[in-house]
């Protein structure tokens, strides 16, 4: 070890601490996002999460400071997971119709894969929307609104490509597809069987067959 | 007052106490069902409900004994309200197609009328199904299963009447209509505007126009 290494040692230790801190923060938030789909985002107290990740409540408090900060950071983490698993790969498809089909199919697949143990994270959060503090509510609705916007934009893209009939109202068609996805998720969580996911796949195929120009 | 009246006085007092007790029990459960759609059935503690109805926690405890008994009685009460407002009048319609249309329309109307402040009681309870104790979960799923059964039976009735094409799978068609209703409820609770209810009405009309034989 040179003298210069020695001089930089405290800096390296600090950097490693930041990296470890960031890693452990991410691990905690991943667990929080999982837990929130079972116990609710409102059930996600620092005490309950501390128990789940095997940390002290004061250790968690050092990471997040308040339940609201924890909830907001948990939503951000769920958003990143949902973007990686569902939205981003679907939006990289070449045509509007493919983007629409992939948004739906990747949504169903992430439910079937139990990416979150209680089904779609944002459906869980939406179901208790009246219970959230305004900043938490607004942050959750941002992702929910963006999701619906992706469905509408994909329909509009498919219309621009000449693949979906111009007579279709993009918002109405997006509503109908989103409805099949939401009930599939709700019934999958109850039944733990693929049947409702297949019902949604069937419904979406039949609806798109009607919409194709 | 005759001697015989005098003899029966304690009996009358006891009967009046039972009636008052029953009335106040119903009033408490009505409040509990309302509250559960905002704070969740799991958020419905004896303490929280006592605060909402202005009773002591020990007074409530005398009525229900435990959180689980309170939850079960609350589901029963919500079931009675839902039957009165939605299911029973719809099932009294003369044909299968009318029963199907009325189940859907009366569902949407009870959401629009804010019969429960947090939207459909059973959608709220279903969204947190993993959190409920098994007896509570089973009781809630009974009503949810019966609801879906009514939709399927109405489709089958309409097929028997020759009003819906025999080629339609009754369970698939019931799934699609139920999906429109569930998303309408979820989005109404978020937006507090009739638009999603009208989207569902439009979707159901279009879907039934296809199914009519």
Strand content of chain A: under 5%
Within CATH, the superfamily of chain A carries the name Tetracycline Repressor, domain 2
Q: Major β-sheet of chain A, in short? A: none
Number of domains of chain A: 1
Query: What value does the Rg of chain A take, in angstroms?
Result: 21 Å
Helix content of chain A: over 70%
Biggest interface, chains and residue tallies: A-B, 36 and 36 residues
Number of beta-strand segments of chain A: 0
Low confidence ranges of chain A: none
Query: Can you identify the CATH class of chain A?
Result: Mainly Alpha
Report the CATH architecture of chain A. Orthogonal Bundle
Q: Looking at the structure, what is the overall shape of chain A?
A: elongated
Oligomerization status of the protein chains: homodimer
Number of continuous helical runs of chain A? 9
Distance between the termini of chain A: 71 Å
At CATH level 3, the topology of chain A is Tetracycline Repressor, domain 2
- Judged by helices, strands and strand pairing, the structural class of chain A is mainly alpha
Mean pLDDT of chain A: 91
H and E string of chain A: HHHHHHHHH
